[in-house]
Design a protein that fits this description.
The structure holds two protein chains of two kinds. By secondary structure, chain A is of the alpha+beta class. In chain A, 24% of the residues lie in helices and 19% in strands. In chain A, strands 1, 4, 5, 14, 15, 19, 20, 22, 25 and 26 form a ten-stranded mixed sheet that branches. Chain A has a four-stranded antiparallel sheet with strand order 17-16-18-21. Chain B has three domains: 74 residues, no CATH class; 56 residues, no CATH class; 96 residues, Chitinase A, domain 3. Classes of the chains: A alpha+beta, B alpha+beta.
């Protein structure tokens, strides 16, 4: 998103508070607030569910992060916090947040930040201090071999650190204003290179001790842990991320033991993992051009290499979410249940404890610095833009072969994503409930809001009615839901879409509906252009619309909201509906082109705009889907009966 | 100075008798040379003792020290050390102590930035929170509360209705809004565009307004929009708006009783901070800084 560079205003400027009494004001005549909020009162809240601090061993060891979980929450909340000796403040406060440090080795290395800690005084501690990055490899190798390093006691460190993580989350929870969730990341790296990571998010103020991939490498065992926590009154979910770097394992046809997915597995997975992360700093996991050749916007923030071997491309099949939606339908047909019936969220996965999703904030990732305070310049900027070559921080294959790490490609990183939820109020109860019912959407970092409803009886001009949201909830289902059973007379489902621009950001280009459906024993996908800005029309021959244009000035990085729309809404009816075929529908909204972070950084430093990265991008929002499942013959008859009885 | 012949035969002593012996001892005791030796011996003994205690090359391992090392080991590794392990720990301690003393003797502590800072930190720490500030009286708290009113102020909150003029519709939205305002002011009715959020907001504070409408004219001017009448147009992140403020709670000062706990917390934190600063200032007061660089 192209905003001004200095969004994080130094705290001093912000501190000024004017309290001016308005003597002309009447006594407040506060309208009576509704006692119970209904679904139609749900509002969009924006938050971060994926952030690391110095308590993550890689953040401390590789990226010199010093930020604590408490700092992270306070920054997210909009308070000024100290970083690298300067006070920094977020441009706009987040509504909710979870710090998700790796449970593996949590709190182990940052104990060295306290000179009084036992680790600081120990020989191992002194050794690590000399070369912090070595500690990362030491620990990771030990983890992979299932051993611990003498003097480094992860069990004890976790105990201490987890107490602090929980305390920081609870202390910063301000119901109605800022919601925090207790969380951590279970970081299973199969064969040391395939990402099966999940973030664990707790609903309440209590949690059991974290579960780590050292306890078990199998996601199924993580679910057992979650089920146990739930039985003990501690509701929690796991959110997988970076399927794009899983080498096909994240959304596989089989279980982690290689057995075909059956009904029990599918139901269990869905119960424990109602959401998955679709976009973050290490690329998007929606789809790729090679999976979706007819999707002209699939070529977006592609990160198709392995995290630990940056020059090795991962397997594409089984790694992306749109395909998982299709595979889910196929599995459902065979096994009777759909393991991939999840909603979507977005996150940063930043490792500097500072959650910022603006486009120009990206440049801070590798060094753990915040660009708005300490913008990379000079060689630091040249390194980020590939003008000066650097080596990858992690390259296991090279390490094994004894050659230097591959040349790093920092430009492959994206700016952070963000999660939107539709919830009645900004509280743990309300937002967690929204996460569980999948009434969520993800954006590539901007605050555009999208609504998506499915139903059988939406009137074509419905969105021009003032109370259309109420009607939509009453007669349809929101994102994350299942279409109600098809009433006898209904021909095809219709969908209400609405996208509203980021109030501080770019206009909207278009809203699309992505449909994935079961076709024989396989699935198919198609993209429908349902709402276009600027009066453009879909070409009936190609099914496509003309590009919206591009206002970005590559000299200044400025763009103009002279094209695009502030809001887009419509009611769309599926023209190709087949009541016999299960289907998944989700919304994708695109902004007009804005400069990518690489462009902004180059302009800021007077460097050439990189040719290896797109100069401009179209930021986007993805909704959680709505599913259609044909009823079995008996069920259909029963539904018909029920309708008739009304 | 005479010489005492200490090898004088004892027989002679015997012959001189008791009185002679006494006299001789007395004479010897008066001998300044003896005084010199005795004083020398005492000084030598004391010096030896002092050197033994302060011998840089003599490392004494006391039972207390061993107990401390053993406890540290237990804290770090979760179990008490075996005798062999303890031997190793003691050996490492002695080794480190020897190197440390060698370093101090070489003056390595003096030029080391980290050591300097660490020692300075320790001294600072010694002077922090030495005593809890006295619990303030109610009236003292109230005085504090009055003096820091801005910190406890509640934001201005406006309840309002608004009409939205979208740039997505044909025609210049600002001009359409102005036209509509004129109609409204003449008692007419107007039709605005559907706004993708509420058309009325209750008790909206400035930060919430910024969140909803963007960092914009609309968010900023809401708090001064006239009550009971339509005004505008104001620009937001979405387009143009006419606003009718329905009620306004001015920014205000909460009653002392409502925020008493917070005031108490803040007061104590401040008192502690002040005490800490004063303690350091007193310490620094004993030092004179001579600036030879400034002429």
């Amino acid at each position: 998103m192209a905003r001004h560079w200095p969004i994080l205003i130094p705290a001093l400027i912000v501190a000024g508070c004017t309290a001016q009494a308005d003597t002309t004001a009447k006594a407040p005549t506060t309208p009576v607030e509704k006692a119970v909020a209904s679904a139609a009162d749900r509002r969009a809240w924006f938050g971060e569910l994926h952030l690391h601090t110095s308590y993550s061993f890689d953040a401390w060891g590789l990226m010199a992060t010093k930020t604590t979980p408490d700092d992270a929450y306070r920054f997210g909340k909009g308070e000024a916090v100290s970083m690298n000796g300067q006070m920094i403040k977020r441009g706009w406060p987040l509504d909710f947040m979870a710090v998700t440090d790796h449970s593996e080795n949590m709190g182990l290395l940052n104990a060295l930040d306290d000179p009084e800690s036992d680790l600081s005084k120990s020989a191992v501690g002194q050794e690590i201090r000399k070369d912090t990055s070595k500690s990362f490899y030491m620990l990771r190798e030990a983890n992979q071999q299932g051993r611990t390093i003498p003097g480094l006691d992860p069990v004890q460190a976790l105990k201490t650190a987890w107490g602090k993580e929980v305390a920081a989350a609870n202390a910063n929870y301000k119901p109605g204003k800022f919601t925090t969730f207790i969380g951590y990341e279970w970081s299973q790296m199969t064969e040391g290179k395939y990402n099966l990571h999940r973030n664990v998010i707790f609903a309440g103020a209590r949690s059991p001790a974290p579960w780590s991939s050292a306890d078990s490498p199998k996601p199924e065992d993580l679910w057992t842990y979650l089920e146990k926590a739930r039985a003990d009154g501690m509701e929690a979910i796991a959110i997988p991320h970076n399927g794009n770097a899983s080498n096909g394992l994240m959304y596989d046809w089989v279980t982690s033991e290689g057995r075909p997915i059956d009904e029990a597995y599918a139901e269990r997975r869905l119960r424990n993992e109602p959401l998955t992360e679709i976009v973050q700093n290490k690329g998007q996991s929606e789809t790729l051009p090679e999976l979706s050749p007819n999707d002209e916007f699939a070529n977006f923030e592609i990160y198709d290499v392995l995290i630990t071997q940056r020059d090795v491309k991962g397997k594409v099949n089984g790694s992306y979410i749109r395909q998982a939606f299709g595979r889910g339908l196929v599995i459902q047909q065979k096994a009777g249940a759909n393991p991939y019936k999840f909603g979507v969220v977005g996150g940063s996965d930043w490792h500097n404890g500072i959650s910022a999703s603006d486009e120009n904030a990206t440049a801070g990732t590798p060094g753990g610095i915040d660009p708005k305070v300490n913008l990379p310049s000079g060689d630091a900027a040249k390194k980020l833009l590939g003008i000066i070559q650097t080596r990858a921080m992690i390259d296991d294959a090279a390490a094994k072969a004894g050659r230097p790490p591959a040349v790093a490609n920092p430009m492959i990183n994206s700016s952070a994503g963000i999660t939107g939820v539709w919830a009645e109020e900004n509280t743990r109860e309300s937002i967690f409930a929204a996460l569980k019912r999948k009434e969520t959407f993800a954006t590539s970092g901007t605050r555009m809001k999208v609504r998506f409803f499915g139903g059988w009886g939406f009137a074509p001009g419905m969105t021009s009615r003032a109370d259309w949201v109420r009607a939509a909830y009453r007669t349809g289902v929101p994102m994350g839901g299942d279409l109600p059973l098809r009433p006898a007379g209904a021909q095809a489902p219709s969908f209400i879409v609405q996208a509203v621009k980021d109030p501080d950001g770019a206009n909207l280009d278009r809203v699309q509906i992505v449909k994935v459906w079961l076709e024989g024993s396989d699935y198919k996908e198609k993209i429908f252009e349902v709402a276009l800005s600027g009066g453009r029309k879909v070409d009936p021959k190609t099914g496509r619309a003309a590009a919206v244009g591009n206002t970005v000035d590559l000299k200044t990085g400025a763009y103009k909201n002279a094209i695009g729309a502030a809001t887009l809404q419509t009611v769309w009816r599926d023209p190709e509906f087949d009541p016999a075929k299960p289907a998944v529908y989700y919304l994708r909204a695109l902004e007009i082109p804005t400069p990518r972070w690489t462009t902004l950084l180059a302009i800021k430093n007077g460097l050439p705009i990189p040719t290896k990265a797109p100069a401009t991008i179209q930021e986007r929002a993805y909704s959680s889907p709505i599913w259609f499942t044909p009823a079995g013959r008996q069920t259909a008859a029963a539904a018909h009966l029920k309708v008739a009885q009304r | 100075m005479g010489v005492i012949d200490l090898d004088r035969p004892a027989a002679r002593d015997t012959r001189t008798g008791a009185r002679g012996l006494k006299g001789r001892i007395a004479r010897i005791l008066r001998e300044p040379l003896l005084h010199f030796f005795v004083v020398g011996l005492v000084l030598f003994g004391a010096g030896q003792a002092w050197r033994t205690a302060h011998d840089r090359h003599r490392i004494v391992v006391t039972p207390e020290r061993v107990a401390e090392l053993s406890e540290k080991y237990r804290l770090q590794f979760g179990q008490t050390p075996s005798p062999a392990e303890l031997e190793g720990v003691v050996e490492r301690y002695a080794r480190e102590e020897a190197l440390f003393r060698e370093g101090v003797a070489l003056g390595l502590d003096r030029d080391d930035e980290i050591v300097r800072r660490r020692i300075a930190q320790k001294v600072e720490f010694l002077h922090q929170d030495r005593a809890l500030p006295a619990t303030p009286s109610e009236s003292r708290l109230e005085t504090w509360f009055d003096a820091h009113a801005a910190d406890y102020a509640t934001p201005v909150r406006t309840s309002f209705a608004h009409l939205y003029f979208s740039p997505d519709r044909p025609g210049d939205p600002e001009a359409r809004a102005k036209q509509a305002l004129a109609v409204l002011q003449n008692g007419g009715a107007v039709e605005a565009d559907p706004f993708p959020d509420q058309s009325e907001f209750v008790r909206l504070a400035p930060d919430a307004a910024r969140r909803l409408f963007g960092d914009s004219d609309m968010a900023r001017r809401l708090e001064t929009a006239p009550l009971g009448a339509w005004s505008g147009p104001y620009r937001s992140g979405y387009g143009w708006h006419l606003v009718r403020a329905l009620a306004r709670e001015p920014a205000g000062k909460p009653a002392f009783a409502e925020v008493k706990d917070r005031v108490h917390e803040d007061y104590m934190a401040n008192a502690q901070r002040t005490a800490n600063t004063e303690a350091i200032d007193r310490l620094l007061g004993r030092y004179r800084i001579v600036r030879e660089d400034v002429k």
